[in-house]
Specification:
heterodimer, A: about 475 residues, alpha/beta, 14 helices, about 50% helix, globular, B: about 425 residues, mainly alpha, about 0% strand, extended, transferase activity (chain A)
């Protein structure tokens, strides 16, 4: 092989990728300005004060969440929105999730008849809170997250619903911000918001008042990752109508359409992505105008794994979910009937997301092999690798530069410098580690379809962790 | 003590230096893209030159550009965080100082000759929080007197940067000055959706003043497709009673969605005032409009005796939404038509059953029928629904609901033969 031709191929690939990043960065910055134009506080205030809002059902599937459930529900009940209900589904929890809810919210059994259109595991009982009228708790046989969401979906009363993880907290104005998008666009089916790691957050009165960098490296890497993925990645995909993922941790959906397409799929670990792809597919097949978008400023805080083992399992599950969804909807791949979703989004997710571990690891191995066999210049490879790291770091730095404009950000200069350092290290080991995990998940995924793997929850500590300000 | 802030919704973004940063980031992005294209092109030429050392120079060149950019972003970020952290600390003190100055001004003291950007924001928020107070008008006069309203109008209409226009427009929306109405109306046709939406909010607030003249072509603008139905609904509700000509104009629109919206807005605004709309639209060919007209009765529009038969007839409509709304509208009857509601309790659609049960639950006679339905209704889904609503009643209002067999004197509502045919 011609040495220079190989170099050329590498650089062309790299240039293409970076042109894509540059487009992403430009798009993000443009969206930032647009977000400011679109989201004036006076418009949110008008939504709060008029009775023209669309009420929202918040669905919280909970399986063995006794450590987090109270904080999670309390934070939801504190949300600023004129009309919403919270539906917690204890999905056959074997710990004290239900007892904890009963104790904290004074639950009483109620009899409810609802129109059931999706087959689910049996509901054992339904409870209403005597102290909080808009809290409903459903106890059901274990059937997985999708099953729990389908039950909640059918008990929900309102036209919009928001599926949330039990270990997540919503910013108190997050619902206002996502709901505003539904007011602005009649054709909107789903809006996703930004998900940020909860680890390292400082609480006062149940609300996040400050952010510090968590202690563990595994958490710090994820903060870098989430900032980059949401503030640059999703913004760009959404802008061009190519979004296939709305995080399961936070998305606002039009309930009737989700019921029409049959709710969440039971037999995949990527039920959140699968539903979005199915909604795209449904709308395209119906030839109806629709939109599925991401908005940058509603924020959901979620607890990210704090050990390497938990993170490995989570990433393994994400990769399998991605593969399962793409395979299930393979008919859309490069199919002009599905417009840009079939022709651009599906190929993008196949080649740059699902197959990325295979392609990138093969590239690493090929480069090493060519260097060892003397067919490739070691200094060139080293420089090229350095370049890749520098550019990856630059993208993370750019995303972090957007993050500094957020009201809640990591502020101490020392923490910011450390965060920048982790953005550098992210490309020097963490990325390669996750590639290996995802590579393994890709290879073994078909044998483990629908398996979730063990999860653990940490207690969300919402006690005040900052001293009160001194009296003035 | 600081005045309450009406909006009380925190801005998500720090706008300090956002626009310069936006420009810088765009510059970086474009530079990097061009760099990559140029270097790749150079390498393409190099491919044929077969010079390995030049390849290394090219890669090194890109590396230097990327590294310098990274350093620039690091310095910018740290500077920004440090400066804004200090700024955050100063802002509260400045706000408090301006509140004191405004208090003094309102008490007849010195008129401020200049307002900082922070003071402008504080003044507008204070005016918004105390919209009905006489002081509020004085604050608006102060703002206008300093030429700030005119400045904002000029910015909103003519500035080349969209964000600057939006921020100026937001200030005008908060100012809520009738004299700005022409600006809002002009911007309702702006190419940028974000500006149109804000202008609609501003126009709605300005037009909500009793006696404000509704521009004749406003309905056309609202229904032109530039706004979502939800935005138009919000605008009509914000305008309030003065929106009547708009609502009536929309109710006569040839397009279904606007007639539906008109009747929906009428229900939210004042059902009694729009009762005649319900009478007309109940005969509309579109089910959504008929359902809306029925909702108007359920919402409180007085039901003329002559309309009873028409409402009852809608209970056999092929569209479930119309049947459901018909069941709901029967709440406006002096006596619930238990025979029809008994039948609707066994409707195939869950919502119809639910509304029928809820309507029965609102009167003593209806509750008695509901109690019998728990055990005696031939439809098992009707029995379930009756049981659920009865249980809710018992829990919520501690009402005594007679159970089926132990409710003597309650006739079983049975329709005459042939009348129960479902659509």
């Amino acid at each position: 092989m011609n040495l220079t031709a190989v170099e050329f191929m590498f650089l062309v690939y790299f240039a293409l990728m970076n042109v894509g990043y540059a487009i992403g960065l430009t798009t993000t910055v443009r969206q930032l300005a647009l977000s400011i134009r679109r989201h004036q506080t006076v418009r949110f205030a008008s939504l709060l004060t008029r009775d023209t809002h669309k009420p929202i059902s918040l669905l919280v599937p909970a399986f063995n969440e006794e450590a987090t459930i109270e904080a999670s529900v309390r934070s939801l009940l504190n949300l600023r929105y004129p009309q919403f209900e919270v539906i917690v589904v204890s999905d056959g929890s074997r710990d004290r999730t239900l007892e904890e809810l009963t104790l904290r919210f004074d639950l009483h059994p109620v009899s409810m008849v609802v129109p059931l259109t999706i087959r689910t595991q049996a509901v054992r009982a339904t409870y209403r809170s005597a102290s909080v009228p808009h809290l409903l708790v459903i106890d059901k046989d274990n059937g997985g997250k999708a099953d729990a969401l389908n039950v909640a979906l059918q008990y929900a009363r309102y036209p919009l619903f928001c599926a949330l993880d039990a270990d997540s907290l919503l910013d108190e104005e997050a619902l206002l911000r996502v709901a505003r998008r539904f007011a602005d666009d009649d054709d909107l089916l789903v809006v996703g918001g930004t998900v940020r790691p909860l680890n390292g957050a400082v609480f006062r009165g149940g609300q996040i008042v400050d952010l510090t960098l968590p202690r563990r490296a595994v958490e710090r890497f994820q903060i870098v990752e989430y900032i980059r993925a949401f503030l640059v990645g999703r913004t760009t995909l959404s802008t061009y109508g190519l979004l296939l993922i709305i995080s399961g941790a936070f998305g606002l959906f039009r309930r009737d359409v989700v019921l029409q397409v049959g709710g969440y799929a039971h037999d995949t670990v990527g039920e959140d992505m699968e539903l979005i792809v199915r909604l795209h597919r449904h709308a395209r097949e119906q030839r109806r105008p629709y939109a599925i978008t991401y908005v940058i400023d509603p924020i959901c805080w979620t607890q990210v794994p704090d050990t390497w083992g938990l993170l490995r399992r989570q990433r393994d599950r994400w990769q399998r979910g991605l593969m399962e969804t793409l395979w299930r909807h393979r008919r859309m791949f490069l199919n002009p009937r599905y417009g840009r979703i079939g022709l651009v989004a599906m190929p993008y997710y196949v080649f740059f997301e699902a197959l990325a571990p295979v392609i990138e690891l093969t590239g690493y191995l090929l480069a090493i092999g060519l260097v060892l066999s003397g067919k490739f210049s070691a200094p060139f490879v080293a420089l090229f690798f350095l370049l890749a790291i520098a550019y990856g770091t630059l993208i993370s730095f750019s995303a972090q530069s957007v993050e500094v404009f957020l009201r809640q950000r990591i502020s101490p200069p020392g923490d910011r410098l450390r965060l920048l350092l982790f953005a550098l290290l992210d490309n020097l080991g963490f990325r390669q580690w996750t590639l290996i995990i995802r590579f393994w998940a890709t290879l073994t995924g078909p044998l483990r379809a629908g398996q979730w793997g063990k999860q653990e929850r940490r207690r969300i500590d919402t006690t005040d962790t900052t001293p009160d300000p001194p009296p003035s | 003590m600081a005045a309450p802030r009406s909006a009380d919704v925190q801005p998500m973004w720090r706008q300090f230096q956002l626009l310069p940063f936006t420009g810088m980031a765009l510059g970086i992005s474009v530079t990097l893209t061009l760099t990559m294209v140029v270097f790749t092109y150079l390498l393409f030429l190099n491919l044929f030159a077969q010079s390995f050392s030049r390849s290394l120079v090219i890669v090194l060149g890109v590396l230097v550009v990327v590294s310098l950019t990274t350093v620039l972003l690091t310095v910018t970020q740290l500077t920004y965080v440090t400066v804004t952290a200090r700024q955050d600390r100063d802002v509260d003190a400045q706000r408090a100082a301006w509140q004191t100055r405004f208090d003094r001004f309102l008490a007849g003291g010195e008129v401020p000759q200049h307002l900082s950007a922070l003071a402008q924001d504080e003044l507008l928020q204070r005016r918004e929080a105390q919209a009905d107070h006489p002081d509020s008008a004085r604050l608006a006069a102060l703002y206008a007197g300093l030429g700030l309203r005119e400045r904002d109008e000029a910015l909103a209409l003519r500035h080349r940067n969209g964000t600057t226009r939006a921020l100026a427009l937001e200030r005008l929306v908060l100012l809520r000055d009738d004299r700005t109405l022409p600006v809002f109306l002009t911007l309702l046709r702006d190419a940028r959706g974000s500006l149109r939406n804000l202008a609609l909010l501003g126009a709605a607030r300005a037009l909500s003043v009793p006696g404000a003249p509704i521009p004749p072509d406003l309905t056309g603008v609202l229904t032109s497709g530039a706004f979502s139905t939800q935005q138009v609904r919000e605008a009509l509700c914000l305008i309030g009673p003065p929106a009547e000509p708009l609502v009536r104009h929309m109710a006569a629109d040839a397009r279904d969605r606007w007639r539906e919206l008109a009747v929906d807005a009428a229900t939210r605004l004042d059902p009694q005032r729009y009762a005649d709309l319900a009478d007309t639209l109940l005969r509309d060919p579109t089910p959504g409009v008929r359902a809306g007209a029925l909702r108007l009765y359920a919402g409180g529009a007085p039901l003329h005796p002559g309309m009873h038969a028409l409402v009852l007839a809608q209970a056999q409509d092929p569209a479930w939404a119309v049947r459901a709304m018909s069941a709901q509208a029967m709440r406006a009857f002096a006596q619930p038509p238990t025979v029809v509601l008994w039948r609707l309790l066994g409707d195939p659609n869950w919502w119809v059953r639910q509304h029928a049960a809820q309507t029965l639950a609102r009167s003593e006679a209806g509750r008695a029928v509901l109690g019998r339905a728990v055990t005696e209704h031939p439809d098992r889904f009707a029995r379930d629904m009756a049981r659920t609503v009865t249980a809710e009643l018992t829990v919520a209002a501690n009402l005594t609901v007679p159970a089926g067999p132990s409710a003597p004197g309650v006739p079983l509502p049975v329709e005459p033969a042939g009348a129960a045919a479902r659509a």
